[in-house]
């Protein structure tokens, strides 16, 4: 009885699926899905040999400091970094006094101790980076209806991480005459895909057009100190991508070094366990 | 281990083999034990104060606005901190007491910084069971010794915040602090 | 049950004797996983996965209880509280990554455990109850994992909650009220998050309880084995301890090694980047997918694209959405009937030439379903998943009963020991009196 009813249920589901398949296949053949501009012209991020790649990778503190400088002077005008506290910057190699100065230069919201009104005060190391806009409505109003995302976790919340940020920052280009690797020209293939007013064309962005204007435009936009590399657009983009990777995963170095020790320990333990297993079974055929 | 006895008396060889086997089993089990103990470390350590809590482990207090005879309640490590500007009369009252008669013998000098005897900085936590004593706020009951008075179980502290009466065993605790300027201190 | 030749628990220390009289817990453990449990001597490495599943549950319980000490189940701060663990809590990143990846490893282990059972016919009499309880554990695990994924309150958490609870709205008439009741609102919110947290904390203990029943039911007939031939005598078995504790120790080492490699060097590889964006009820991610372990079922859900209707009348009997939901639940519930669907008297797939072929086909089929479930809902993935889902149902409900009646199994070994001996023929025979005796 179970088998009979089960067989009926099986026939029913399998039959419906095959009908669905035939229906889908017919419409697939008669009206194949049209290619989309995103499908053909979206580019995958270029891979960079980051210092933090691989199981032994570490952050380059000099690079993180430069990246922090780029964030401060360029990105922080619109993008917040709310999960990061000033005290965390110690990991970039700043001294407590420098961190105090960095924090003091920013106003954080607090209650005025005298009047009880909402007001601001200079930051202290224990504070987090303050928001740029008090809420989403204000962010939208100031940015042509687009919300600049918080950057604390951006390196983990986008496929490609640091590679993606770097490619996006350096990937702005003119849409006129833009061709992909196959030599197809975007506006010839998809005349409707013209970037709308107020948006900016970038093939590394999922739908090719984003609200952010190219933030890094000229060499020397940020002036690095003595003994640092030349602040080309590519260099600045790399530095800020590294900084944002640190901001998203500040415990990476501890994680990897713990991992090496744990894996080493487990290797020995597993070999011992295997020897013990072989010993115990040595007189038992199995 | 057993290599050099190989080829000698079979019984000895057998015995050595058993011992070598035991050794490996014991080593494997000990390794597992060590691993288990190592895993406990993060499991226990996670209960310690986290980085954001530790970052707020110091407080700065501005003394300039506190008038003579006045006291304020500041916050240090999420606990009340009493900062009191003693009057000359209160200092004299505190100095008049013979420390050897006290439950927790200390002089006002020992409880303040040299040359800043008028600034009495103590935790606002009763040493009996942790209530917040009265006396730091405007118009609060300062108890019969003019210092602080804990309403929970009636401990009375004098003008040097020393325990004088009631169940508390110790004087109000003086936290570590230093003057960052003439009118500001950093506690913690 | 234990075999008559199993060792009896004999406490030597007076203290142990005293405990044994008052509360025979050590005796219970001895008979369950100690020297008192006689197990077939020929188990292969696939038999390690039961113990590994227990270990995975333990890891989840321990890390989960600790994470709950730092987590805030409030929609306003849940996301930030998880980031607080990752950044500020001592070893918090380790514990959270261990819990998130531990869930994936739990499913990897359990899937291997399930397919072990499917291949070696572990669901057949007299072990039907072990199988049924196992399916219950699997269902509970799925519920627990789903609710756990909602807790970090990222974009995938939110939209996962929205979509999965939305399945219930496919039920005719009462669907929408049930949907609202599950969420405690009209969209996932504070109420949803709090009830999911509460249940996510409760269900693992229920799972632990059902696992005890699962092991209890297993101990009545005793463990199965790769030949599927029942134990015939003392030469067929070895005591669980030290033989299988040692083998499991090695298995645990390998498992932890793989777990550590992912946990420390690729902790986000099995997660979705979108879950690092705080939940936003106003914006749906471009491509919603559940965690990878749900992908095969998600593919079945999406494979139904056609309403069941009376042709040319436009009257819909079952809409496609409801069909998908029914099929998805059926794909798991049919496992409850498996012991009575597959009637072949031979347990082990090793001796079933026809079954073996279809089993490997099923394995590939489930992997294909999983791949399609993780892919965007576009062609050709939908068409592939339709074929794959059709085979999934056909395999269990049509193919298995047919094979059972037409297949001619290979000859079975006379006993476990005979099978072991046949395998050992080419190896130098070692001193094993039991084996030597059996060989004569």
Which tags fit this structure?
heterotrimer, A: about 290 residues, mainly alpha, Cytochrome Bc1 Complex, Chain D, domain 2, 2 domains, two-stranded antiparallel ribbon, about 5% strand, extended, B: about 190 residues, alpha+beta, Rieske Iron-sulfur Protein, three-stranded antiparallel β-sheet, 3 helices, 9 strands, iron (chain A), transmembrane (chain A), electron transfer activity (chain A), Cytochrome c1 (chain A), heme (chain A)
Produce a short descriptive summary.
Chain A is mostly helical and 286 residues long. Chain A contains 9 helices and 4 strands. Chain A folds into 2 domains: 57-252, Cytochrome c-like domain (Cytochrome Bc1 Complex, Chain D, domain 2), CATH 1.10.760.10; 253-280.
Oligomer status? heterotrimer
The secondary-structure element order of chain A is HHHHEEHHHEEHH
CATH superfamily of the largest domain in chain A: Cytochrome c-like domain
If strands are numbered along the chain, what order do they take across the biggest sheet of chain A? 1-2
Count every beta strand of chain B, where a strand is a DSSP E run of 2 or more residues. Answer: 9
SS elements, strand count of chain A: 4
User: Strand count, sense and closure of the main sheet of chain A?
Assistant: 2 strands, antiparallel
What is the 3D form of chain B?
elongated
Model regions low in confidence, pLDDT < 50 over at least 5 residues of chain A? none
Overall, the morphology of chain A is extended
> Overall mean pLDDT score of chain A?
93
CATH top level of the largest domain in chain A is: Mainly Alpha
Count of domains of chain A: 2
What's the helix count of chain B?
A: 3
Identify the CATH architecture of the largest domain in chain A: Orthogonal Bundle
CATH superfamily of the largest domain in chain B: Rieske [2Fe-2S] iron-sulphur domain
Cofactor (chain B): [2Fe-2S] cluster
Membrane topology (chain B): Single-pass membrane protein
Pfam family, one (chain B): UCR_Fe-S_N
Enzyme class (chain B): translocase
